[in-house]
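name: query_chain
kind: protein
chains: 1
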Amino acid sequence: MTFSIVAWDRDADELGLAVASRFLAVGAVVPWLEGGVGAIATQSFANTGFGPHGLALLRDGATARETLDHLVAADGGRAQRQVGIVDARGNTATFTGDECLPWCGGRTGRSYAAQGNILAGPDVVDEMATSFEGSVGRPLADRLLDALAAGDAAGGDSRGRQSAALQVVSPGGGYGGFNDRMVDLRSDDHHDPVAEVRRLLGLHVVLTATAPEEDRLPIEGELAEELVELLEAVGHHVSAGPDGLFTALRAWVGSENLEERWWNQPTIDPVVLAGLREQAGRG
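structure:
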């Protein structure tokens, strides 16, 4: 009742999963991930025990195939299950039980596994694989979402659309460096859930990414004067004194949840500048 892809990005040390289904809140059931360990998609009358049990096996050093074989062998309902696994070394495995509803199946490639059931046809999985294989070098979140969109465009879940989810993990890669959840986005009940998750990913990038050093703009001269005008226009008064502009700008950045694009230096992220201009009606 679902189609999904799990994958590993060696260069970025990231693991991810993207999934869509005509099922309410599929992101609450299918994805199980841990940074530096692995990613598991458990679907088709999902045995959610595959998630924590499988991650424990991967954490102890089992490969994706060894983990999948163990999970399936111990499950009396295996004939109705579907599972995809990737470990933190790029090993992959996929399984489709004999009693999964058609069309059903999966395939693996370099560092990914794609699978689905009750699909419009095999093109759904094939298009996901083709998309992922053709997008090497791009961020893992984008690659996974593009693959999911390719499967959706090929017919996706034959019953229709309802929910989708995207998760990417990496050790210490989450908010503030205190967890592994780099991306954790869901559309639980939507007429076009994959597109909605793409919109959310765009917001996520704006709010959590940061400009490289070479792209940061010095706050001086005409730009400093413009910033004073922009901040006044959006209701953030710039007081007199050397720190007035800096204080007002910091306050606006906080009000817009753009702290990840703030570094307490006399420079500004171009994304922050563009957002301030837009809010002031000058974008």
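note: The helical segments are 50-59, 64-73, 123-133, 140-153, 193-208, 221-233, 244-255, 270-279.
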